[in-house]
Every structure is written in structure tokens, then in C-alpha cells.
């Protein structure tokens, strides 16, 4: 999830985006962006908090916000967590403003792109080197390292294997040949 913290700047700079330090500036108000992860798990986006798609219209966002406020407002529910309501409110405050929403969407796209693994190759199981003695498949990486996977791990579903020496990944498409 991307959390926003706003503060007022004393300078009147033009609008800019600096993704490196996760700071956006709109006029004299700076918005700090923090992309949070918990133990490698992806947090919910503001769209997911409201239960909407990223291409939702203003009216859809507003309708969903109003539904959630009725459901989770602390005055309406005894056992409703205030944190839930605050997350819903924060999501609405950012997504209702076209400028802030565009900045959020840009940062979200940047975050998603940076989280995607670098896939070196997409291969079929039949293209891997099979080792009968160790019951493994392997494939040579461009760095000189090795991708290695046990024959028992190669099943009916596609899988991803990391190189032992670098950050590259291969995508193994299952072709039902072992």
C-alpha cells in the first residue's frame, strides 16, 4: 500500500515528481509516498481498500466509499476497527482528487514495474537438461550460474526458477513431458 503524508513547504516550486526519494510536490504541498510491504507480502492498494478497479470512475469510487463508510464508521458499528475506517477515508481522500489520483497511479505503476522479476527466458520442460543421477533439471544462465529444479517440482503448472548466482529467473512452461 502506498501511504501519503502531506506537509507544507515554504518554497513555491513547480509540480515535480521525484520517485527516487518517493516525494511528490504539488504547489507548496509535498506528499511523501511510502510503499509498504510486510514480510515480503504485498499490501493492499488504495483501490483494493475501496474494492474498486484501477479504472473506476469518480462516481464508482464515491459510491463504494459511501457504502464502506456506512459499514465501517466507528459510530455505526461497535466492533468496527477505527483503523479500517481510517484506511477507507485515506483512500477516498487521495483517489477523489484527480491530481493526487494521477500521482498515485503513476507511483503505483512504478512500484509494480519495479517488483516484477527479470525473466531471462521462457522454456518448456523438454528444453531443460535432465540429470537422471540427481533427478533434477538444469539450465545454464548467461552469468555462468545454473537454474536447477527437482523433477518432483516440475508438475502440471508453470513455475519460476531463480539462478543460483544472479537475480535472473526462468519461466518453465509445463509441456507434460518429463
List the helices and strands and how they pair.
Elements: E1 2-8, E2 16-18, E3 23-26, E4 29-35, E5 37-38, E6 41-42, H1 46-50, H2 58-72, H3 82-95, H4 98-115, E7 119-124, E8 129-131, E9 136-140, E10 146-150, E11 159-162, E12 169-173
Parallel strand pairs: 7-12
Antiparallel strand pairs: 1-4, 2-3, 3-4, 5-6, 8-9, 9-10, 11-12
Helix pairs in contact: 2-3
Describe the 3D structure.
The chain is an alpha+beta fold. The protein has two domains: 2-115, DnaJ domain (Helix Hairpins), CATH 1.10.287.110; 119-173, Microbial ribonuclease fold (Roll), CATH 3.10.660.10. It contains four helices and twelve strands; from the N terminus they run ββββββααααββββββ. It has a four-stranded antiparallel sheet, with helices on one face. It has a three-stranded mixed sheet with strand order 7-12-11, with no helix packed on it. A hairpin with a 4-residue loop joins strand 2 and strand 3 (23-26). Helix 2 (58-72) packs antiparallel against helix 3 (82-95). The longest helix has 18 residues, at 98-115. It is elongated and about 65 Å long.
Short synopsis of the structure:
With 178 residues, the protein is α+β, with helices and mostly antiparallel strands. It is built from four helices and twelve strands; from the N terminus they run ββββββααααββββββ. The chain has two domains: 2-115, DnaJ domain (Helix Hairpins), CATH 1.10.287.110; 119-173, DPH Zinc finger (Microbial ribonuclease fold, Roll), CATH 3.10.660.10.
Amino acid at each position: 500500500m502506498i501511504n501519503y503524508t502531506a506537509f507544507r513547504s515554504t518554497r513555491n516550486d513547480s509540480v515535480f515528481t521525484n520517485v527516487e526519494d518517493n516525494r511528490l510536490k504539488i504547489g507548496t504541498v509535498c506528499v511523501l509516498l511510502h510503499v509498504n510491504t510486510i514480510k515480503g507480502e504485498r499490501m493492499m492498494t488504495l483501490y483494493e481498500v475501496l474494492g474498486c478497479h484501477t479504472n473506476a470512475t469518480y462516481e464508482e469510487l464515491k459510491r463504494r466509499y459511501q457504502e464502506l463508510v456506512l459499514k465501517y464508521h466507528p459510530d455505526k458499528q461497535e466492533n468496527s476497527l477505527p483503523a479500517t475506517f481510517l484506511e477507507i477515508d485515506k483512500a477516498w481522500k487521495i483517489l477523489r482528487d484527480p491530481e493526487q489520483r494521477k500521482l498515485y497511479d503513476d507511483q503505483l505503476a512504478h512500484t509494480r514495474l519495479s517488483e516484477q522479476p527479470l525473466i531471462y527466458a521462457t522454456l518448456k520442460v523438454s528444453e531443460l537438461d535432465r540429470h537422471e543421477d540427481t533427478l533434477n533439471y538444469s539450465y545454464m544462465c548467461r552469468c555462468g550460474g545454473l537454474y536447477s529444479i527437482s523433477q518432483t517440482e516440475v508438475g502440471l503448472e508453470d513455475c519460476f526458477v531463480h539462478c543460483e548466482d544472479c537475480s535472473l529467473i526462468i519461466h518453465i512452461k509445463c509441456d507434460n513431458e518429463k
